[in-house]
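Q: Predict the assembly, please.
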Amino acid sequence: MGRHSKRAGALSILFMGLGQLYNRQIIKGCILAVAEALYIIMLLPYTLSCIKGLVTLGDTPQRMVNGKIIQGDHSIFMMVYGIIAIIVLFLFVVLYIINVRDAFKVGKNRDEKKKVNSYKDSLRNLSEKGFVYLLLTPAGVFTLFLTVVPLAFGVMIAFTNYSSPNHLPPRSLVDWVGFQNFINLFQIPSLGKTFAGIARWTLIWAFLSTFTTFFVGLVFAVIINANKIVLKKFWRSIFILPWAVPGFISILIMRNMFNGQFGPINKYLTSIGIGAVPWLAEPFWAQTTCILVNLWLGFPYYMAMMSGVLTGIPRDLYEAASIEGANARQQFFQITLPMVLFATAPLVINGFAYNFNNFTLIYLLTNGNPANNQYFYAGHTDILLSWLYKLTLEQNQYHMAAVVSIIIFVFITIISAFNYMRTRSFKEEDMVQ
Amino acid sequence: MLRRNIIELRNLTKSYNDTVVVDAINLLIRENEFITLLGPSGCGKTTTLRMIGGFEDPNDGDIFFEGTRINNVPPYKRNINTVFQKYALFTHMNVYENIAFGLRIKKVPNDEMKKRVQRMLKLVDLEGFEKRHVDSLSGGQQQRVAIARALVNEPKVLLLDEPLGALDLKLRKEMQIELMDMQKNVGITFIYVTHDQEEALTMSDTVVVMNNGVIQQVGSPVDIYNEPENRFVADFIGESNILEGIMHEDFLVSFSGRKFRCVDKGFSKDEPVDVVIRPEDIDVTSPEDADLQGVVSSVVFKGVHYEMLVESGDFEYMIQSTDMQPVGAGIGLKFGPEDIHVMKRGSDNEK
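A: Predicted assembly structure:
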């Protein structure tokens, strides 16, 4: 290693910009030195206190002195400031590393008797070779503050006791509790039972709702695309309507239609002598109703998509199969079905992930009811997400909600990653022209 | 060698919405024959093939298979199989499953199925490809799978609808030879549809030239090329110079203001005729000892030969020669009596 590179590197580690000054890159060196000075003077004390706050989450609670409220530490704000301070510190460290590498590299060039870039050269270099990074910088900063900060915040909540009634800022402080929430979720009987029960129903719900919409959509698509059907466009438009109307409205209408006492469906059933069905009142029926309403809402999407896939299957495949003696049923099961499944499998997985989190339907149709008194703030039709909603916005149990959301996050991530890999392989297969 | 007829088309007609696509054609197809339906696109050749295969119902006329009328027999009972233009392979199955598809439907026992598929793989030279996904095969290999799938049912007739259309030139030439070998090996009738006249001449025992739904000429490749029956066939098959002439008597025809000896006879006295002279049959000589004189107006290099247009009188002759003549050169054109082919006047066989 040469003399200049060693010295420049060491100097720039000592203080940002010194190495550059040593390399006689005066302007660049000055800019870097000023940057570090500014950071140390203006931000460093604040950064350190924020990070300390993140560790302690505050130690002076709100107090009453002589009938007056004296504000204490707000643990949750401290946590957010702490996360932001860490990110700013991280950015500063990255800049520092770049500065050391730059000083070292320029020093090395001097050792090898190469030309040292002037300030103009450096600027040109940055706008030519570094153009990609320049463009990406705003996006990177946005990602850090708008994605990483909330995400980190959400994850951190899971390791605190942030909840009503005893740990709710600003009245009281929040403490770190490590993995206690995760342990509680599986060890406290009411919590564990709720989680297991809701998780099971969520999976059943996601599977059944996707499966039913998919196959009913397929059946409708096959029927509408059959040669003998007239008015194809008319049927397609009629059946797409439930999907075209905002789901919000149709779900609320459905909620009234299925009303046990006053709903038109039960009135009709009573009038023809079948009797009222407890559509939304009994656990089994409420779950069935959810799946039925979702089917009505969801199948047009699959129908529309599969119509496209079906028309994309070359006609000569069917001719080839008919020469081999395959009848209509065999043609459906050996050609139509596999081709459609191959083309739409990624969407099925997507649909599964969507229904797994289909908060709108559950919340608007049943609101998780009928209630289950063995559950921790949840009902028989609650899925994980609607339970989360109740935990946070209705019961202020943020710590448990964060734990559950981490579990959902892991689950959905696995599904999405799997889906992504499959999708790529499908693209290469080029099955349906 | 006289061979039995296997398929007979009688007055076969097909029209879509008043457009007649196939117009009352009659055709005899013999056993073990490689027969090609040749014509420009829209001439009705594919429709004819699809009627033989059973995918289209004729509006009129009959199809006989070994003497039995099969108009109403569904495709899979016809003992005829088809290789489709785009192969129509089942892309969600591997090579083995594609070939075994029909055997599975017919519930052929596993052992026998395996044997028959293996035999086919050997025939089309794809041994060891059983587990391969058909998408991972090249165009030529997919073509072979399609052929194997068609032949595994042991049909008596194989229909091929422009099967080499999607392949590049070199592969197409190789597959032409292979298809001919396969046809000889399995000893069944191939009915082949193409618009490529060179392909038809290379592969076929019999060529059926079609235009506008009507058969123009049926014959061996040599007959079709050397003795075209009318202007359309002469024009469609290869390059030709077609002139109007007068047949004075047997073996004597006049065109371009001169009388020539020829080898054709059987026309009435002074009948107007069309005369065909193939570009490669015209010899270039010095103007003095030639039948006709002309001036070269353009020269194009075609690889094997030069293609020259020569103006002589009010006709422009196309000549193919390995010797180049410069543009503007005055040259002589010479051809013998056997190079002149005389046809009845009239552009086309029409109904």
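Residues 243 and 275 of chain B are 5 Å apart (CA to CA). Chain B touches chain A through 23 residues (CB under 8 Å).
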